[in-house]
Amino acid sequence: MAAKDLFHLIVRNALEKDNWIITEDPLYLRVSPKVGMLVDLAAHQIINAQQEDRKIAVEVKSFVGLSNLHQFHLALGQFLNYQLALEQLEPDRTLYLAIPTDIYKEFFSDSFIQASIQRYNVKLLIFHPDKELIIQWNN
């Protein structure tokens, strides 16, 4: 089993505070006989009176390491593989990369990082680690 990110439980709590129901922790995706992946969290939420169900998968990243750019490279590669797997196995589930507010402000505001996020259609869930709250969803 892969190690959970430093902020895993914080993001889980923030999602639950935002009325999401955690359905998998982690979400296992078997994409081929030799390839299986673990996305940190899967959740769903009833979004209207017609009982429409919204499903998400969330990969949590703390960006603690040698460099933010290196951590971004790792996170982006992981995100793209998970996105492809979800397209094949659960096309109704939307993937989000969860990042703390300080990393969003300090690093993700960079023009190159923004261009990369747009090019690869990375959806962000920005959370406040101390308050255990979701601050923003970037689609």
Question: What can you see in these coordinates?
Answer:
This protein has 139 residues and is an alpha/beta fold. It has a domain of 61 residues: Trna Endonuclease, Chain: A, domain 1 (3-Layer(aba) Sandwich), CATH 3.40.1350. It has 4 helices and 8 strands, in the order αβββββαβααββ. The strands form 2 sheets. It has a 6-stranded mixed sheet, with helices on both faces. The longest helix is centred in the middle third of the chain and has 22 residues. The termini are far apart.
What oligomeric state do the depicted chains represent?
single chain
Radius of gyration: 15 Å
How many helices in DSSP terms? 4
In the CATH scheme, what's the topology name of the domain at 72-121 and 129-139? Trna Endonuclease, Chain: A, domain 1
* Regions with little confidence, pLDDT below 50 for 5+ residues: none
Helix fraction bin: 25-40%
Q: Which structural class do you get from the secondary structure elements?
A: alpha/beta
Q: Kindly report the spatial arrangement of strands forming the biggest sheet.
A: 1-4-5-6-7-8
Biggest sheet, in brief? 6 strands, mixed
The ordered string of helix (H) and strand (E) elements is HEEEEEHEHHEE
Instruction: Write down the overall geometry.
Output: globular
- Highest-level CATH class of the domain at 72-121 and 129-139: Alpha Beta
What is the beta-strand fraction?
25-35%
Total DSSP E strands: 8
Integer average pLDDT:
93
- Intertermini distance: 30 Å
CATH architecture of the domain at 72-121 and 129-139: 3-Layer(aba) Sandwich
